[in-house]
Structure formats: structure tokens, C-alpha cells
Specification:
alpha/beta, 10 helices
């Protein structure tokens, strides 16, 4: 995502830091916070890293196993047929999601380092930035930074949005536990305050999961594709133009089947820059 934004900025001159709304989900919350904090994606250097790149207990294979385990548990709930029902903001949908989360064992790794790195950027909720997480107990979505959302600092909200169930420890904010916003939707495009004449850019790197060897993960990715399509269609009906960016062939090869493999970081960043630079003005 960061590479694509840098390449597109260089090619077209469009400065994404000036977007009137920044919605961040999971790893996308890091990108949104960096933009809100004024970082220029053309710099290319990754200063914000996921926890667990050096600790031997946090190997990519360990995370992949946790994701696969969580995917198997939630596959039925997040299948293409069930996804629209679970996404609905209804008590039944929230309860179903909470039941799924209750079956996923809490993760053991805390995101302290991610918190400190995000805090160093000094981003703030300025009316544009919204960070999406899911209340583990209720199954409801929370967009930190939006009207009526619980109070939180950006660093805690980003950590919550990145707390993959079964791997990272849920993040406590205001006495509630929160987990990865991708449990609700990979994009949360329906939060975009977009209407006629507005342009919406949506980056979906998880589309690369569609080629993963594990059937459970491919099923989860299929459900997410349906969810993203439904959200994009709603924005288009309101008159907004929606551009959805997924990894092209080169970026997908660079990412591989394990989205969280830190050894691929430099190659993925370079592939993202190349893909973004090919964007038309």
C-alpha cells in the first residue's frame, strides 16, 4: 500500500496526505495514520514495522498458522453467502460475529512496539482519520475518530485495528477489548462520506490471499471480495467514483502466499512503487 501510494504520487502529482477522509483497517490503519501524520509515501523507507520481525517466536510461519486456524474457525461465518448478513449492523449479525471471535483463542503477542512507532508520528484524529476495529465482546464495528466512537489515541486505535485474532493480543480501550477491523470488512468502504463528484481510492492488498494454498484462507478472501464489491457498489450508487486497487501480477508474486513474511518487505515495497507509478494521470 505504501509503495503504491508513493509510486502514484510520483507519477501523477496527487498528494494522498490531503485526502478529505482517511479510513484505515488492519495494516491499512498504519498507512492511514502515516498519511494523517504527514509522512510522504514517496520516501519509500518503511519506518513503521509489524511487531515480531526479529523475535524467533513470532516467525512468519507462526503467524500464517494462526491466520489459517482462525480462517478455518470463521470460514462458515465469513463465506460469500454469509458475509453480507454478518456485515449488517444488526444485533443478530453482531452476536454471530462475537460468537465466532469467542471461538478463536486470544493471541499472545502484544503490539507495544507498533504503538510506540505510531505514537512517534504524532498523528491525531482530526475529523478525517478513522481507524476501524471490532469490539471482541459484542462483535460490533467501531470507527475510532468518528462521531460517537469511544475516546482513544491514534496509536492504541491502530494497534487494535491490527490485532489479528488468534495471534496478537486484543487491545483494551475504555475497558473493552478490540481486535482487527478486517474481522468486519477488509475495506469498510461503507464508512466513506462520499457522494456525487467524490473520488474514493480503496487499496486491498488482501486480494492476494485468493491464491493462498490453504482452502480456508481462499474462502475467507472470497468472502472479503464479496463484501468489498457490495460496499463499492453502494458508494457508486451515491454518485461517487470508486477505484479499487489490488495487487497486480508483479505485486502478487512479490507478496507470495504469506502476506506477513517480513523477508519480502523490500521486494513488495518496490513492486508496489512500480504498480503505483503505472497509474494514469
Amino acid at each position: 500500500m505504501w509503495g503504491w501510494l508513493g509510486g502514484a504520487h510520483e507519477a501523477t502529482g496527487e498528494d494522498f496526505r490531503h485526502a478529505k477522509q482517511l479510513i484505515g483497517t488492519s495494516a491499512g490503519s498504519i498507512v492511514a495514520a502515516r498519511l494523517a501524520g504527514g509522512e510522504d509515501p514517496r520516501r519509500g523507507e518503511e519506518r513503521i514495522r509489524w511487531d515480531g520481525e526479529t523475535d524467533p517466536e513470532r516467525r512468519p510461519s507462526t503467524l500464517r498458522a494462526a491466520i489459517e486456524r482462525a480462517s478455518r474457525i470463521s470460514l462458515g461465518a465469513f463465506s460469500p453467502l454469509a458475509a453480507p448478513a454478518l456485515m449488517a449492523a444488526t444485533p443478530g449479525g453482531a452476536l454471530a460475529r462475537a460468537a465466532v471471535l469467542a471461538r478463536v483463542p486470544p493471541g499472545r503477542i502484544e503490539l507495544r512496539d507498533l504503538r510506540s512507532r505510531v505514537a512517534a508520528l504524532r498523528p491525531r484524529f482530526d475529523g478525517r482519520l478513522e481507524i476501524v476495529a471490532v469490539d471482541r465482546g459484542s462483535g460490533r464495528r467501531v470507527a475510532f475518530g468518528s462521531d460517537g466512537a469511544p475516546e482513544a489515541d491514534v496509536a492504541d486505535a491502530v494497534a487494535a485495528s491490527c490485532a489479528i485474532p488468534g495471534f496478537f493480543t486484543p487491545v483494551e480501550i475504555g475497558g473493552r477489548e478490540y481486535v482487527d477491523g478486517g474481522v468486519w470488512s477488509p475495506t469498510n468502504l461503507d464508512l466513506a462520506r462520499a457522494g456525487r463528484g467524490d473520488r474514493v481510492l480503496c487499496l486491498v492488498p488482501t486480494a492476494a490471499m485468493g491464491t493462498a494454498p490453504a482452502l480456508a484462507i481462499r474462502g475467507l478472501a472470497a468472502g472479503w471480495r464479496v463484501a468489498s464489491a457490495v460496499e463499492a457498489a453502494a458508494a457508486r450508487r451515491r454518485g461517487a467514483s470508486v477505484e479499487i486497487v489490488t495487487p497486480d501480477a508483479g505485486s502478487a508474486r512479490a507478496i507470495g502466499s504469506d502476506l506477513m513474511n517480513p523477508r519480502r518487505r523490500a521486494g513488495v515495497l518496490a513492486a508496489g512503487v512500480r504498480q503505483g507509478a503505472a497509474r494514469e494521470r
